[in-house]
Design goal:
The protein is of the alpha/beta class. The chain contains 6 helices and 11 strands.
């Protein structure tokens, strides 16, 4: 008789893969944070990809927060993290962050879901993020037939769009930047002005010093490796182009024109060295890129406490980045 199926991959009990290939996702997740009640922001959901049943959540500041009658809201696309395997627009860490971004930046925030691994391995997540960008373009082209909050661009500015990716979302944001290039002409009349990467989840076969430790309170090398095993195409390594932007098979970026990029990372993050190396290499290529490190902070310092002093400082950095790249 064969043995009963047993757990071979376990992502903190939220996602488990059994020896017979069965995938179990918990429907009763106990989140260690409350959902913030932000009175100054309204939010609602919308479908953006019927084929894959993918929705996004829109966050809009109330009229009281507008700077003036002629003010148009910039648009932030927020791509959540979770190692390509976990996460949703509805998780408190994502929802609270988007509320804070909408109120703190006085922007319309668009938070799309994407297909998760291992059910849908990469590049599914990248494809879904690009689909969300195309949805936004469709809204800009639809005029009076668009979503009410995006109607005719009367309250939003489709020429002032920024993409913010957290962790694995930061990796996705990088691939969007490469795909659409400087000026994002493929998305016209949508104009992406810049990309913000929170501790982008990049990998590589050769370990970095920060990856070797010490571990963080909520993250360790074992978890990172598990995410890669579950999300990469079967048989691929961490040097795959979707994981390592500078791997042996990755496309050369010297000739690629990119919109401005801002990289923000905590000084105690396992992913710090890869983020710093990414920024340094792109800067050496002549790309417009900024690197900001928050000393002593660990992974998710903005998401897990978006109203902290460090989060307030993060918003200041983003505001300056927006101001510097709005024209």
């Amino acid at each position: 008789m064969g043995s009963f199926p047993h757990v071979v991959e376990d992502c903190v009990g939220v996602l488990q893969v059994l020896s017979d290939g069965t995938i179990f996702r918990s429907k009763n997740i106990q989140f260690n944070m409350p959902v913030i009640d932000e009175k100054s922001v309204h939010f609602k959901d919308a479908m953006f990809d019927k084929d894959h049943n993918l929705q996004l959540r829109l966050y809009k500041p109330t009229l009281a927060s507008f700077a003036g009658n002629n003010y148009k809201l910039p648009i932030f696309i927020f791509i959540h993290g979770g190692g390509f395997c976990l996460g949703s627009r509805m998780w408190p860490s994502c929802h609270n962050s988007c509320l804070r971004l909408a109120s703190g930046l006085n922007a319309l925030v668009v938070a799309p879901d994407y297909r998760l691994a291992p059910e849908d391995r990469l590049p599914a997540a990248m494809e879904d993020a690009a689909s969300a960008m195309k949805w936004l373009q469709g809204q800009a082209l639809s005029g009076n037939n668009s979503h009410a909050w995006l109607n005719s661009g009367s309250e939003v500015d489709f020429e002032q769009v920024f993409v913010l990716g957290d962790s694995s979302g930061g990796n996705i944001a990088h691939h969007l930047a490469v795909r659409f290039g400087a000026g994002s002409t493929e998305l016209a009349p949508v104009r992406v002005r810049g990309y913000v990467l929170f501790a982008p989840f990049f990998g590589g076969v050769i370990r970095t010093k920060s990856e070797e430790g010490p571990s963080e309170a909520l993250l360790n090398l074992e978890i990172l490796d598990r995410f890669w095993r579950l999300s990469m195409p079967i048989g691929e390594t961490r040097d795959h182009p979707l994981a390592n932007p500078f791997g042996p098979w990755s496309p050369r970026l010297e000739a690629v024109t990119l919109d401005p990029i801002l990289v923000i990372v905590g000084g105690n993050e396992l992913l710090k060295d890869r983020a710093e190396d990414y920024a340094r290499r792109l800067k050496d290529m002549g790309k417009k890129i900024e690197y900001v490190e928050f000393e002593g902070r660990e992974h998710g310092f903005f998401n897990y406490d978006p109203y902290s002093e460090a989060a307030n400082q993060t918003l200041q950095v983003i505001r300056k980045f927006m101001s510097d790249n709005s024209s």
